[in-house]
Amino acid sequence: MHITHIESIRVGEYPDIIWVQVYTDTGIVGLGETWYAATTVEAAIHDHFAPLLVGKDPFAIERHWSNMFRLSDHAGYGGAEMRAISALDIALWDIKGKATGVPVYELLGGKVRDKIRVYATGAPYVGAGELAKELVAVGIVAMKMGPTIVVATPTEGQYLAPKELDRALQPFRDVRQAVGDDIDIANDGHGKWSLPVAIQIAQAMEDLEPMWQEDLMPLLNPDALLQLQQSTRTPVCISERLLSRWQLRPYIENGSARVVMPDLIWTGGISETHKIAVMASAHQLPVAPHDATGPVNIFACAQICMSAPNAMIMEHVRPFFLGWYGDFVEPNLPIVHGWLHAPEEPGIGTRLKAAVRQRQDATLRTTDEMAEKPGLNDEGWQGGEGFSPQMAAEMQDIWRFRKRSAAAPEGKVE
Asked: What confidence tier does 86 reach under pLDDT thresholds 50, 70, 90?
């Protein structure tokens, strides 16, 4: 089996989402997704990464991930490059699951559970209590909102008057009055506040017993976040703003994070999120994957949630799930009475509807040519000159292995 071509799909109705489909000579197609600045991601996919994958064995996922990351890590751990890697990685796992006839979680060690709780993101300032009643009625046990986000603007997050804080917290009080402790509440600050104000907010909310405080301040300084955690009994959650195990690591190791929330379609796909979950487990921390994007993300996150013992809960935007998701993928998410169930179909468990490619607002781009990228055969090395014969031979062996392990193997049973 080898990759024949790679296709990206954008739609004008949702301009920030981009899907990628990786095609193989066997007819198996892998689906991936990412979100935000879709045209920039499209360029990263086709101008940089797709030529590395065309003609190669889709099963060599770790090799491909390393090659793509090595091509772009000089630009840091985030940006369009990492989002492109994330989408392609999901698609490669989807191919491997479909080819072997099993859901991806079976390839990650197998299930540790059949389902996981979901929480609902988003609430109005007026009517949060009524929404909480609706969520409880359909089995949802947690919700997240961010009423402190907008009040940061006048002072750039440097000052919050007590009366403004009291007003901002009214939706949380409405929820408690409406349903009591029947639902957990998480607060999302969107990284708007300075450390002193973050402490002020966290301490003011403690009597409301939040599930966690997420991004009250920008995730720029692990020591500052530790001060926030030490100031409150509420767990502090690190979020999708940190990309890759390397950015998450100092927050996990110094104790400032009590909940780890990777965004699978931003942080490196299934491969990297699996590693992050393992790293968090070594510190006895739960993972709660992030979502506020497209349907493929949750299908991919389900593979982590079913196979990671330390998965806590899965985010979802209920209006997306009940609304536009069903127009783009089949099947839709297996969320029933507050639980995300393990997808049963091979791969990630869903596919893009055929009609998506035919939409009038769809933009498709395809890459079907392969290329070797300079720098992937040990940067700066042009041959044996200046090396001993033994070292030159060893380097040739390494390079041959790299090409062989990433190429379609001969004689492989399809």
From this structure: very high
Which phi and psi angles does 84 have, rounded to 5°? Answer: -65, -45
In whole angstroms, how far apart are CA 101 and each of 56, 89, 104, 160, 169? 21, 18, 9, 55, 49
pLDDT, tens digit (0-9, with 9 covering 90-100), for 107-121: 999 999 999 999 999
- Model confidence pLDDT, tens digit, residues 185-219: 999 999 999 999 999 999 999 999 999 999 999 99
Cβ distance 172 to 207 under 8 Å?
no
Q: Cα(230)–Cα(213) distance, rounded to whole angstroms?
A: 13
List the beta strands (DSSP E) in 314-372.
314-316, 329-330, 335-336, 339-341, 351-352, 362-367
User: How far apart (Å, rounded) are the C-alpha atoms in residues 121 and 94?
Assistant: 27
Annotated catalytic residue: which of 64, 274, 290, 316?
290
User: 296-335 b/e with 16+ CB inside 10 Å = b?
Assistant: bbbbbbbbbbbbbebbbbbbbbbebbeeebebbbeebbbb
Instruction: Give the Cα-Cα-Cα angle 138, 143, 145 (nearest 5 degrees).
Output: 140
DSSP 287: B
User: Whole-angstrom distance between the N-terminal and C-terminal Cα of the chain?
Assistant: 6
Active site residue 290: yes
> Is the pLDDT at 125 greater than 70, yes or no?
yes
Residue 90: the pLDDT is: 98
Confidence (pLDDT) at 386: 64
pLDDT digits (tens, 9 = 90+) for 212-231: 999 999 999 999 999 999 99
A 10 A CB-CB count for 199 gives 18
Ramachandran assignment for 10, one of left (phi > 0), alpha (psi -120 to 50 degrees), beta (any other): beta
Query: Within a 10 A sphere around the Cβ of 171, how many other Cβ atoms?
Result: 22
Do residues 18 and 87 lie in contact, with contact meaning Cβ atoms separated by under 8 Å?
Answer: yes
Alpha-carbon distances of 24 from 48, 91, 114, rounded to whole Å: 19, 11, 31
User: CA 371, CA 365: separation in Å to the nearest integer?
Assistant: 17
User: Which residues contact residue 20 at a Cβ distance below 8 angstroms, ignoring those fewer than 6 apart?
Assistant: 6, 7, 8, 9, 31, 32, 33, 34, 45, 84, 87, 88, 91
The token duo for 235 is: 């767990």
Q: Distance between CA 289 and CA 298 in Å, rounded?
A: 9
Annotated active-site residue in 190, 283, 337, 341? 190
Residue 208 tokens, joined? 């409301």
C-alpha span between 39 and 45 (Å, rounded): 10
